[in-house]
User: What shape does this take?
Amino acid sequence: MRIALPKQVEQIIRVLEENGFEAFAVGGCVRDSILGRQPSDWDVTTSALPEQVKALFRKTVDTGIRHGTVTVLLDGAGYEVTTYRIDGDYRDGRHPSEVYFTRNLEEDLKRRDFTINAMAYNDRAGLVDRFGGEEDLKSGMIRCVGSAGERFEEDALRILRAVRFSAQLGFSIEEETKKAAAALAPSLERISQERIQTELVKLLVSDHPEYLKTAWELGITRAVLPEFDAMMETPQNGGYHNYNVGEHTLKALEVVRPERILRLTVLLHDCGKPMVRSTDEDGRDHFYGHGDVSAQMALEILKRLRFDNDTIRKVRTLIRFHDWRPLPTERAVRRMAGRIGEELFLLLLEVKRADEAAKAPERRKEALESVDELEALYRSIQERGDCLSLKKLAVNGQDLIADGMRPGKKLGEVLNALLADVLDEPSHNTKEYLLEQSRSLR
Assistant: This one.
């Protein structure tokens, strides 16, 4: 087998070999190359010690020198070069307490998480595959290197990573690996929320976000996202749904575009339903106010998972309004777009479309047609250039001050009142009309 290495990686390997060391491309870049995918980055493993690597290349950065990693800078890009190593005990469930450098490639490969990530390659030796990674790629299998229990005890995040790789590649998880994951899933509670967030997002934006169900089946979500377990336990008896809340969410995740904000929104859009569920005398379930409750819970969940404020704002807004059903009129659409913001309105329609597509088939056609109608109205509004925000209002605060209004809280109230007027009637968005109107509002 031959893998096309980038010229910079070839150069790093060549320089190390010419100076008496071994060097290989390793890990995910080898896996992705075999699968015919474009690797996102290239890592090199070598028998050279970090100081020896630094001596051979003009520009390097000590990115993880304690664990043997030096980043070599070539042509404006960085390539991690790591010395073969054997890890000591993992006392914190993440980092080895000690690292021992070795000159044996196989010792280095056997400490890695999954067989598909434990292959190395260079043009001289070809593919080095001591643990059956290539065969597991062919059979579509996620399997730990050696003892699954030991690998997961070393770093519990690997339990979630197993599901994440499964979702990204469409692979199954090997039975012993799955058993160990289920047994050790509670240990994920020790993992930092930032690391959980990274893996969860990668799973969600993968080709198979519905594999989140595997995480639920193995007890992983109980440790990292217990709200999803409550969703999987909440039925939706009635005319709109033929799935429970969690299954409906999984179906909606399959439908919506693989974009980070959209997938996070769909994951959490109904997370408040278990909290507000009520059942009437006919046995029909109702979820009154679940949009607001879900938005508040999403705020708490995303903060817990250490998401940034912009992501939280967008997801929370989309969830809050996902169940709104405006009249199919341009006036109602302008008002809604004005309230949530133009940047989010089309995303909201995508969320609504996924939500409706995951409901009972007999309701689906009419519901999706209503979303299409809202989008058609919004496109017409955009084409005309109707004002939907204060930025496009024909007057601003300075105009009102120049017209004799004092700065202060009232100024903002008047501007918002003028925007509401223009949302109702776009032709009113002229400076002359708005200044005259503002005088009656001061």
